[in-house]
Amino acid sequence: MRIIVSFDTEDFTDPVSNDVLLDIARALSDHGVRAGFGLLGEKARFIRDLGRADVVEALSHHDICYHTDNHFLFPDPLVKPAFMSEYVEERSWDEAVRHLVATEAEGLRDIEELFGRRPTTYFRTGGDSAAQILYAYHLLGMTTFAYGPSLYERSRHIAWFTNMLCVSLPLISEGHTYKGEGPNRLDEFAAGGADLVNVRFHPCMFLADTFWCNVNFRGRWDAGRFGPWKLAPRLPREETRTRIHRMCQLVDYAREKHGAEFTTYDALTAEVKPNPPWLERDTVLRLARALLQRFGYVEVDGHYYSLAEAFAAIIWTLLHPQASQAPYRRVIGPVRVPGCPAEEGGRPTQAPSSLQLTEGFDVAKEDLVAGGEEAERSLSAYRRVPADVLLGGRTVPPATLLRVAAKCLLGEERLRAEPMPIYPEGFDDVLRQWDDLGHELIGFFPDRGRDTKRMKQAAKLQYWSYKPAVLG
């Protein structure tokens, strides 16, 4: 069994939280455990501005990860006060991603300057697992999404989604550990055959039983950026010491009883088998053959390819018939439903509708090449599968173009466009679960009961980018 110890490191209001953080980091180092600390950008600035070089030095023995710049709590001074999830829900994919990249770059920069290394793992904040957020972090050079999309939380699930490695693991919560229930929980996981487990904490909860944000933001979501802050009621010092002691007891128990080894999300990411940079033509043909059997991610020679990646390779090969290789490109799926009009100013230009063929039609080779060229422009410019494309004078979904291109590469003489699904095969239950999720699991809003249609739709479309990850 291997265990990842992680900390959502948030509180930038109480200076004593830095003392507790120092004690936690040193205690784990003394026990030979390298943990992952997911810092807010604001927390890093808090440590820096208080001159806590001792905290920086102690944390430097662990993995420095990221937990957003400010917990998605503060309003943007240039727009209406809103949580990040509200901003994402109300805007088009491109607007939301641009805003996320611009705002989150600040936190990543400040953490890098303070610790001399840039975080590559994002610890999910609240329920925010919107595909737009994942893609923005990918553009910022991050690789890993710890705790995984809400749909897979607390089960062992390691897969690529929206070009982020999403890792979800069986969880031992801080509440179990503080109560001394961590060993029993670990025994249950071991009996069930768990090989990877996450033990998750918030350093602020070693200091208080009330979250720092609850006393400052609950009921006043438009709070200014710099306080003055209320402090969460602190626990007695002895209780703080007891909680740190029980954390260390769990570490010792895991080693002595289960022979556990400790790793981190960063180390786990380094174990993931990468795809080759180039695909031999025969590999692309095998992708094409597999996609005619099943419309979803494909495995060839021990490597998985998402439907979006297979689309990019097949279109490239179609347009370069003399090439012996095609580049492996990490593209994502379409960002709107086929047939849904392009958006202006963050709002649909008209009511969305799904583009679905009702019957098939024959396609001339030159029309297929023209459609492939149009698709390639989207792949090259936006690094994503187009939502729809012209094929023989008709607008068709990308799945239809992909199927015809696959048939062409495999030498079929009669090229016929057929009705195809919008989403990859094999995800019917998953897609229904996204629709059923409450708002608090897909996007955290200050006002309960908000709808999350846009974020749920984006997540469903990005199963074009889904594929299992291979460790080792």
List keywords for this structure.
5-stranded mixed beta sheet; TIM Barrel; single chain; 21 strands; elongated; 2 domains; 472 residues
Question: What does this 3D model show about the protein?
Answer:
There is one protein chain. The chain has 472 residues and is of the alpha/beta class. It has 2 domains: 2-270, Glycoside hydrolase/deacetylase (TIM Barrel, Alpha-Beta Barrel), CATH 3.20.20; 278-425, no CATH class. It is 42% helix and 15% strand. The chain has helices at 16-30, 41-49, 53-59, 84-89, 93-115, 131-139, 174-178, 182-191, 212-217, 237-258, 265-270, 281-293, 307-319, 365-382, 398-409, 428-436, 439-442, 453-461; strands spanning 2-9, 36-39, 63-66, 121-123, 144-146, 157-161, 164-168, 171-172, 196-201, 261-263, 278-280, 298-300, 303-305, 325-327, 343-344, 347-348, 361-362, 389-391, 394-396, 416-417, 467-468. Strands 1, 2, 3, 8, 9 and 10 form a 6-stranded parallel beta sheet that branches. A 5-stranded mixed beta sheet has the order 4-5-7-6-21. Strands 11-14 form a two-stranded antiparallel ribbon. Strand 18 and strand 19 (394-396) form a beta hairpin. The chain starts with a strand and ends with a strand. The model is unreliable at 344-353 (pLDDT under 50).
